[in-house]
């Protein structure tokens, strides 16, 4: 794969100010939605058709020590995207910098990509009848600007750049904080075949609501790699058999008239 | 078109009547998302109106409409970054809930009446003059001690009214606060406060 | 702030106390994270609850609301006991060596000179002991038992670790970790910064809370150095500017004292005698006041008529004009009309039920804002009012937003920054500058032909600005603020050149120099930083005199040598030649020196860094309304008996026993309550609750309660609960969390809860204003209301 | 020649259900193909773009589901009768299935006596309803994906595709065997006409059924 670009989310620097969430809405001019406070700061519970990124809040208390993790969730821009594979309309593609983007016109809102995505990211937008997800602000990066969320990030928790450099930085960050956070790890290096959005986590991924080892469901693989490409040939097969039977019955003289003339006693 | 049950019934009623003629496409072309809409527009630098950090914000406007607001990349305090509030300043201007006309509420009324600026200015000036004239104190007697320590009365010029108060200004510009303070002191007001004290 | 935002990257240890910096001043964490990365800085957060700031801090210690002085007093005692103070700094730059008058004393919670009836101190015994010709006596060895150092040591010896932890409810180990970590900055090559906000100031001991931070920083030598300072993080974009412009009852512009009907202020001479100290930079007060009067009254102000000094209104000494006092007066029908510009006291004022009732007594109100505020619509049914019973006439003026007009605002770091106009205001909205000008013009129009003496002040006020041209109007006002040399008509270059003979004018002396003939420095946007420590001298203008780190003389020792290389700001260069005077040996600096640079270090005044004070040194001992040393007193509504002295409540704080301001007792209201904000909303919320993207992120009022309290009251996450105080009742959604724990005080467990206070009946995100619960009680010095510690009760359900 | 005796093989209800089912199936097939893969780009204009196809697929899916459901509710006995018949598997049926390939090629075979529906059709009577059932269920899951658990949704897609492929495969046989295959002409036109076939044809092809229902007036 050519050198791809993405960004690193260093959750140990994130102050949960959600500047990125609002910057994303502002740049993409996405409308706000009705929400209700239910006992957690994560008042926007999940991605929606109008919300391409959220911050998830996770509170834990272990041996009297409180941990409060904030994790930014959005499309992971996989190196080998499942959504791209399953999309019947070929609406999803990878740009030269490795961003997984959608062509809004081609998308018919069939939500195949949502079913296939190992991270459960794409969401259906009712008004536009389209699937929506983060596009890594390709129209901005093409002009040399930072993605809207990365530019808004105050503490440098989000850093945009080449994936390999970010990977090295992530590993260095993990080694820096391993003392304080023994379970610190890099997320996104290998998950689902590797992603362009990398994370420095201070704890196991499940503590952040992330999949421990996300991968495309075997069902989807079976469908994608076996049923879709080969099974349609069965139709052709039975079609051929019927055509063969049509000619061979005529050829062997057991034609229609032979049957027709049968007397009652057959 | 992926539709909910309710919409489906509504549409299907109509659509069956106009079954798609060959080649006729039902939906309008979707807006092409992801255009770099601020291309070659000169951003106007401003400062975020919210907390006291004083972060730089740039506003992109084209033919009288705000089309984008972001952090000011040159600003030494925030270097282009913004918190949730700073990133939302776009909706301060593009917001139907903004007040757009001077309003007046008559005594005991339960709703606003729209007025024009000239009318409200004159009415306000009348109220200020009436209340000031009724309660203004130019001189008043105060107790003081003369050299021997005995108590005596002193007449002081105070030029004050306690009947008019001013509140606010922490969100106003410096120049506005200066005129506000100058006008208040010129009118003889002493109840001059704002939420720095809260 | 004594320093500024970018300077936070130079710190080695940040004590965030009385603030939730990551949420209410998020940009501070850009620079704290930079300090952590480049200098290995440690971030300490001391707060009643574990919030988003604590999540990113290295060390978090809980404390009960209202016990900041006990906590920091304990740290000061820890510093004295372990000899961790910065000796050279304390000896040279504070009034530690000064001897105090024999009459001064402190016994069981009260200082000498207390008058219980008037609830005031007679401060005559709180003076320095002086020799025959009035110079204060000093003991440089700091041994003399009557010197400030020893008196302070004795005062805080009562704040031993056990007593402190019994009062604040902080676990002992955490308290010692905080004390040890922060005291480590008391060395030449380290600097610690204190970042505080309303959690410090909104108490009945608010000013002393700030004072004890100053004392702590002086003891550790952290003031005047990069990465140090006592940094008040202001909540509003221009609250700093609004204070500078004199929009407070007790000050004129530039913090000159506003005259009252105290006989001393009878005339200009009397005023200047009372307000001008014998030494220190404030000796220039006459120049500042006369210049201001020339700006207000122009040619009419002459030497003969005391420069129209009589026109300045003089408030009554027997009446309290602060916010609480104003609403009490409104409630009593004294105040008839009010201007409310860019403010929403219905939501932000204490004891909201009473303050709403007070509004109903008004004859008229003029409100200006971007959105319809709760305050302007207090008469509506949605506010729960009965319009048919409210006579107040209300004029609502639509105001322009920040980037729909041009102007300058001053941030916490005293940077006066210009902001340009990007687009026309919506509808018929107008900039507040033009609104004030028009109102002034119309009122003066009505008074044009009056011959009465009482109308002279308004008639002769200089108000000849250009009409209907907002750019010219703005420019004229900016120039007026900066001031003119009236003999040449040129703009004042700096406030040092102001005169008291009427030949110069200056609206706000501390801003003088911001708009000179050379340039309007507020518009400067030069991103270069020659200092390398984030000074950015050519980015906008910082008052005073573009100085970015105040008291920066303290960054060098008595001889003028910087304490350490990467913390130097100003230093004595013995062989630097001054071209103009040819003098050899001058001060050099990377920031505007906060010091009279003609004094060499060895001169008598060469070692007086605190030029605003008449003794020129930092005030460990300083005359405040409630005592020269900060002393812990319990909040007005407290569930516990005070264990440091028998004086339960701040003896010098004004108590309002007026209607609708009942005091809650602990038996009926056992739970401690505090109020605070979140990053997604701002102050009274009228702007953010009308912003869809922010209303989506924080839609409802919530109250954070501990798991233990939740179990006790069988309240679970998401339940709607009612919180009640002696003054009011509000509904909120419960957020049951481990981030808030009950406090063990004097061996017994007390619960604490916290409420968001941004909400009102307007906007997309609506809710009950939490300030229906808070009392009308204020700080002894500033009368800032005690929002942060009061008593309440909570129960499930809505009734 | 005197009009030869005819017997009723299929009722009007059955025929209507059958043909509406067929129309729905083909429409669904083609609108679905537009969404299934990019190969069927050329089909898009016919249905008014991808979104048009999308809508039609849902419209006909509802009909596809409603008609048999209505039939089931209206005359349950006809459906259950059919199923009962189809469930009768004896040696005749097995022998029939064994000899079927030869018949398919066109060799002369003596098929064992069959009921109203012969063994192949009995297999078909189970196969198609099952396929249609699963298509319907998985279709509903895909249509309202938001209200179903993710794992179910991700299973629905392969099931839906598998079923329509198998269904269409089976359709190939059913369509051919029911029409062009020698001897099917009679029942083919019956499906279009009034549902009657020549008695002699019925006696030959569906001997058991003929004898049972029409045997006595021989």
Walkthrough of the structure:
The complex is a heterotetramer of chains A (266), B (198), C (799) and D (218). Chain A is α+β, with helices and mostly antiparallel strands and 266 residues long. Chain A has helices at residues 19-28, 82-86, 112-116, 138-141, 148-152, 163-177, 218-230, 232-251, 256-260; strands at residues 5-10, 54-62, 65-73, 92-94, 100-102, 123-125, 130-132, 158-162, 185-187, 197-201. In chain A, the strands form 4 sheets. A 4-stranded mixed sheet of chain A has the order 8-1-10-9. A two-stranded antiparallel ribbon of chain A has the order 2-3. Chain A has a two-stranded antiparallel ribbon with strand order 4-5. Chain A starts with a strand and ends in a 6-residue tail after the last helix. With 198 residues, chain B is an alpha+beta fold. Chain B is built from 5 helices and 8 strands; from the N terminus they run H-E-E-E-H-H-E-E-H-E-E-H-E. Chain B has a 3-stranded antiparallel sheet, with no helix packed on it. Chain B starts with a helix and ends in a 5-residue tail after the last strand. In chain B, 49% of the residues are buried. In chain C, strand 23 and strand 24 (729-737) form a beta hairpin. In chain C, helix 4 packs antiparallel against helix 7, helix 4 (68-81) crosses helix 8 (172-183) and helix 4 packs parallel to helix 10. Chain C is globular. The two termini of chain C are 45 Å apart. The chains are: A alpha+beta (266), B alpha+beta (198), C alpha/beta (799), D mainly alpha (218). Chains in contact: A-B, A-C, A-D, B-C, B-D. At the B-C interface, strand 1, strand 2, strand 3, helix 2 and helix 3 of B face helix 11, helix 14, strand 10, strand 11 and strand 12 of C.
């Amino acid at each position: 794969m050519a050198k791809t670009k993405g960004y690193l989310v260093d959750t140990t620097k994130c102050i949960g100010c959600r500047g990125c969430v609002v910057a994303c809405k502002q740049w993409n001019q996405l409308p706000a939605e009705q929400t209700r406070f239910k006992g957690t700061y994560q008042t926007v519970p999940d991605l929606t058709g109008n919300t391409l990124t959220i911050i998830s809040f996770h509170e834990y208390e272990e041996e009297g020590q409180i941990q409060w993790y904030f994790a930014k969730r959005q499309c992971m821009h996989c190196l080998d995207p499942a959504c791209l594979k399953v999309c019947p309309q070929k609406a999803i593609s990878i740009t030269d910098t490795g961003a997984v983007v959608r062509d809004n016109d081609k998308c018919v809102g069939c939500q195949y990509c949502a079913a296939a995505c190992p991270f459960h990211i794409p969401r259906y937008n009712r008004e536009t009848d389209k699937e929506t997800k983060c596009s890594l602000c390709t129209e901005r990066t093409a002009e040399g600007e930072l993605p809207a969320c990365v530019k808004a990030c105050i503490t440098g928790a989000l850093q945009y750049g080449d994936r390999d450099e970010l990977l090295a930085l992530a590993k260095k960050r993990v080694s820096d904080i391993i003392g304080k956070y023994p379970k610190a790890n890099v997320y996104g290096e290998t998950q689902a075949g590797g992603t362009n959005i990398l994370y420095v986590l201070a704890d196991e991924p499940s503590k952040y609501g992330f999949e421990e080892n996300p991968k495309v469901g075997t069902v989807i693989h079976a469908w994608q790699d076996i049923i879709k490409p080969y099974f349609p040939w069965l139709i052709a097969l039975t079609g051929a058999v019927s055509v063969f039977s049509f000619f061979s019955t005529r050829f062997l003289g057991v034609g229609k008239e032979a049957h027709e003339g049968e007397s009652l006693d057959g | 078109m992926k539709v909910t049950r309710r919409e489906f019934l509504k549409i299907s009623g109509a659509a069956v009547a106009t079954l798609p003629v060959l080649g006729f496409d039902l939906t309008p072309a979707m807006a092409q998302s992801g255009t770099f809409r601020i291309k070659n527009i000169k951003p106007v630098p401003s400062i975020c109106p919210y907390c006291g950090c004083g972060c730089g914000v740039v506003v992109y406007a084209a033919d009288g409409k705000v089309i984008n607001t972001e952090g000011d990349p040159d600003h030494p305090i925030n270097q282009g970054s913004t918190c949730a509030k700073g990133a939302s300043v776009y909706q301060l201007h593009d917001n139907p809930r903004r007040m757009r006309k001077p309003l007046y509420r008559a005594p005991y009324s339960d709703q606003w009446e729209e007025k024009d600026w000239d009318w409200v200015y004159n009415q306000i000036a009348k109220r200020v003059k009436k209340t000031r004239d009724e309660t203004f104190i130019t001189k008043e007697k105060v107790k003081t001690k003369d050299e021997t320590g005995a108590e005596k009365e002193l007449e002081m010029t105070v030029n004050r009214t306690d009947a008019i108060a001013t509140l606010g200004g922490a969100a106003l510009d410096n120049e506005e606060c200066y005129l506000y303070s100058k006008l208040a002191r010129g009118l003889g007001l002493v109840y001059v406060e704002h939420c720095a004290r809260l | 702030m004594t320093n500024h935002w970018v300077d936070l990257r130079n710190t080695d240890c940040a004590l965030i106390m009385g603030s939730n910096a990551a949420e209410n001043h998020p940009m501070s964490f850009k620079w704290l994270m930079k300090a952590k990365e480049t200098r290995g800085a440690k971030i300490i957060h001391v707060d009643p609850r574990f919030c988003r700031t604590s999540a990113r801090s290295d060390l978090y210690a809980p404390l009960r609301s209202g016990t900041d002085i006990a906590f920091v007093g304990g740290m000061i005692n820890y510093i004295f006991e372990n000899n961790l103070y910065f000796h050279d700094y304390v000896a040279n730059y504070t009034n530690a060596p000064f001897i105090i008058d024999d009459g001064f004393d402190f016994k069981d919670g009260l200082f000498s000179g207390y008058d219980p009836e008037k609830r005031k101190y007679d401060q005559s015994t709180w003076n320095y002991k002086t020799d025959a010709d009035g110079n204060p006596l000093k003991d440089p060895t700091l041994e003399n038992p009557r010197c400030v150092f020893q008196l302070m040591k004795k005062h805080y010896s009562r704040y031993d670790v056990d007593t402190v932890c019994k009062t604040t409810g902080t676990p002992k180990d955490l308290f010692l970790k905080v004390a040890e970590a922060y005291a480590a900055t008391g060395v030449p090559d380290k600097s610690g910064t204190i970042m505080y906000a309303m959690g410090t100031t909104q108490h009945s001991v608010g000013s002393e809370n700030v004072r004890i931070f100053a004392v702590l920083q002086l003891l550790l030598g952290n003031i005047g150095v990069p990465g140090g300072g006592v940094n008040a993080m202001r909540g509003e974009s221009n609250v700093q500017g609004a204070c500078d412009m004199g929009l407070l009852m007790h000050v004129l512009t530039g913090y000159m004292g506003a005259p009252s009907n105290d006989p001393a202020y009878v005339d200009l001479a009397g005023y200047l005698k009372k307000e001008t100290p014998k030494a220190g930079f404030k000796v220039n007060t006459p120049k500042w006041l006369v210049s201001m009067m020339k700006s207000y009254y122009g040619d009419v102000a002459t030497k003969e008529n005391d420069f129209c000094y009589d026109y300045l209104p003089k408030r009554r000494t027997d009446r309290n004009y602060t916010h609480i006092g104003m609403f009490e007066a409104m409630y009593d029908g004294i105040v008839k009309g009010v201007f409310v510009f860019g403010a929403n006291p219905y939501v932000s004022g204490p004891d909201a039920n009473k303050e709403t009732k007070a509004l109903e007594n008004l004859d008229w109100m003029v409100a200006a804002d971007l959105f319809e505020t709760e305050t302007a619509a207090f008469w509506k049914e949605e506010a729960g009012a009965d319009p048919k019973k409210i006579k107040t006439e209300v004029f609502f003026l639509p105001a322009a937003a920040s980037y729909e007009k041009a102007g300058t605002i001053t941030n916490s770091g005293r940077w006066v920054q210009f902001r340009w106009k990007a687009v026309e205001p919506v509808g018929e909205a107008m900039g507040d500058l033009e609104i004030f000008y028009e109102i002034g013009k119309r009122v003066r129009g009505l008074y044009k032909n009056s011959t009465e003496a009482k109308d002279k002040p308004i008639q002769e006020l200089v108000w000849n600005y250009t009409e209907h041209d907002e750019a010219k109007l703005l420019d004229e006002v900016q120039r007026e603020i900066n001031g003119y040399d009236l003999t040449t008509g040129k703009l004042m270059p700096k406030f040092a050149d102001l005169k008291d003979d009427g030949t110069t004018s200056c609206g706000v002396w501390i801003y003088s120099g911001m708009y000179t003939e050379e340039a309007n420095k507020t518009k400067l946007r030069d991103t270069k930083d020659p200092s390398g420590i984030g000074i950015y001298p050519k980015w906008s203008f910082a008052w005073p005199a573009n100085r970015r780190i105040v008291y920066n003389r303290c960054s060098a020792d008595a001889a003028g040598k910087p304490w350490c290389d990467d913390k130097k700001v100003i230093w004595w260069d013995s062989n630097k030649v001054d071209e103009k005077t040819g003098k050899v040996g001058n001060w050099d600096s990377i920031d505007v020196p906060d010091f009279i640079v003609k004094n060499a270090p060895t001169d008598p005044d060469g070692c007086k860094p605190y030029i605003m004070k008449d003794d020129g040194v930092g005030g460990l001992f300083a005359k405040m309304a409630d005592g020269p040393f900060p002393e812990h007193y319990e909040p007005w509504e407290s569930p516990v008996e005070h264990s440091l002295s028998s004086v339960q409540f701040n003896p010098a704080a004004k108590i309002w026993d007026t209607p609708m301001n009942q005091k809650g007792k602990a038996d009926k209201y056992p739970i401690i309550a505090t109020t605070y904000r979140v990053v997604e909303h701002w102050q009274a919320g009228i702007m953010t609750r009308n912003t869809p993207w922010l209303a989506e992120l924080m839609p409802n009022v919530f109250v954070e309660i501990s798991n233990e309290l939740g179990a006790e009251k069988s309240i679970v996450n998401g339940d709607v609960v009612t919180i009640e105080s002696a003054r009011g009742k509000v509904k909120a959604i419960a957020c049951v969390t481990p981030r808030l724990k009950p406090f063990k005080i004097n061996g017994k467990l007390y619960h604490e809860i916290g409420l968001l206070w941004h909400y009102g009946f307007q906007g997309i995100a609506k809710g009950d204003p939490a300030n229906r619960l808070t009392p009308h009680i204020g700080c002894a010095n500033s009368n800032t209301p005690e929002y942060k510690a009061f008593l309440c009760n909570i129960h499930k359900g809505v009734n | 020649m005197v009009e030869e005796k005819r017997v009723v093989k299929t009722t009007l209800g059955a025929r209507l259900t059958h043909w509406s089912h067929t129309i729905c199936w083909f429409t669904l097939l083609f609108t679905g193909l537009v969404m299934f893969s990019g190969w069927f780009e050329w089909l898009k204009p016919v249905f008014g773009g991808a979104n048009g196809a999308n809508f039609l697929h849902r419209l006909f899916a509802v009909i596809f589901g409603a008609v048999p459901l209505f039939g089931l509710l209206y005359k349950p006995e006809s459906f259950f009768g059919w199923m009962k018949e189809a469930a009768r598997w004896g040696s005749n049926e097995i022998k029939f299935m064994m000899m079927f390939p030869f018949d398919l090629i066109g060799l002369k075979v003596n098929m064992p006596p069959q009921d109203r529906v012969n063994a192949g059709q009995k297999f078909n009577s189970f196969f198609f309803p099952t396929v249609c059932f699963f298509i319907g269920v998985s279709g509903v899951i895909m249509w309202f994906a938001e209200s179903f658990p993710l794992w179910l949704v991700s299973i629905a897609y392969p099931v839906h595709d598998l079923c329509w492929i198998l269904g269409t495969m089976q359709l190939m046989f059913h369509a051919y065997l029911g029409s062009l295959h020698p001897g099917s002409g009679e029942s083919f036109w019956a499906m279009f006409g009034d549902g009657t076939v020549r008695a002699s044809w019925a006696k030959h092809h569906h001997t058991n059924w003929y004898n049972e229902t029409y045997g006595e007036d021989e």
